[in-house]
Amino acid sequence: MKRVLFACVIVVAIALSSFTAVINGQRGAAPAAPAAATPPAEPAPRLADGHPDLSGVWWGGADVGSNLRGARGGGGARGGARGAAPPPPNFTALYQPAAAEGAKKLADKDDPTLRCIPTAFGTLNVSLYDVGAVGQIVATPKFVVMMQETFHGYRIIPTDGRPPRDNVPPSYRGDSVGKWEGDVFVVDTRNFSDDTWMWAEGRVSPHSDALRIVERYHRVDKNTLEIEATVHDPKMLTGPWTVPKQTLVLAPFDQIMPLICSGTETKGLMDAAAKQSAPAQQ
To answer: Which listed residue, 116, 147, 230, 236, has the most CB atoms within 10 A of its CB?
Structure first.
């Protein structure tokens, strides 16, 4: 499958060609035969130690530039059908008063991703908010490596029971350790720097250096990966944020591709955001 991407930065929605299959019926044709029963899903492959093999390229079923974000949920509340239950609270809805006031002073021009700084809420689960983001997992006997196309992002997660490191400086992606609880891979990430946002594309969402994210990865079958997460930030939030479950599917290709980002490509975006945020001229 050919994946056509036109862009070199992540914060821009990347246009893709869409392919629609059209099946024309014939007048007077014989009634169609009953559809064959859907075969059962193939089981998840397993590693030599018996744990599910999380390896593969995972996506939400479409590439960057798709219009699925509104259907799958986003960083902020979106209007639904009249009378529908309100959406669950998101990260910014749980801000303490001081954090909420600080966020009001920020705008698109302050988005760290305009300077090619990644979001804190990644690597695979960024797809929950940016449908089209594509991630790859490579599982080894000692580590699970998670990579994504955007932000040059990766995490190397040890699985041998070691504790979190206390001798590394804070970083954009934090520091992760993993463990197995049955067939579920649990990733505990902490030691974040506080100069990133949770989301990109102008969705104001700063966090503190107390941020901690606990994720649970479950490969349900060969083609399905479920991700659940809980976000803690006692300096910013009134309580933990339970992230809605995300379901990714195995992509029809076996390698991700890089989307290059540098200050050169994003200068125009930064200038435009600054103008948009500037007070109107008298």
So the answer is: 236
